[in-house]
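Protocol step 4 of 5: obtain the predicted structure for the target chain.
Materials: sequence only (see below). No template structures provided, no constraints applied. The aim of this step is simply to have a reference model before the mutagenesis design in step 5. Sequence pasted as it appears in the construct record:
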Amino acid sequence: MALGLLALSGCGDDGGADPGRRDRGDQTKLTGRLDYGRSGGLAGLSDTLTLEPDGHATLSTRRFGRRSVTLRRAELEEVERALAPVDLAKLDDEYSPPVSVADGFSESVTYGGETVSAQTGGDEPDKLARLMGTLSGLVERYAPKR
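Step 4 output (structure tokens):
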């Protein structure tokens, strides 16, 4: 599972651009807080990642509690690349399967005042799935290992 676009300075129509992002060449720079959450699964996960534009983040997990982390520049750019093609305002609010999936996951992304969620089997767009996969990977990378 698993947000655009160019905010132009100056006058004129912005073509629906998201004011929470700035163009940086071939990708869009994160300019506001991004929140990601996932829950469910056999283990009953409940994880949240709050990411600031400077790469500072807070990770909270049910199992290990809360910790502060700082993403490497490459990791922040990976998030920005995954975010660039996704315009949350143009997506459905929720992608749910027609029938609930036992031990499935629910994920959500909030950015620029918009929230989109997806559940296992919900048939979300590939670009949203890529973004959520990138964010989930960061949770896995930074969650304490025991």
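Step 4 remarks: The two ends are 26 Å apart (CA to CA). The chain has a mean pLDDT of 82.
Proceed to step 5.
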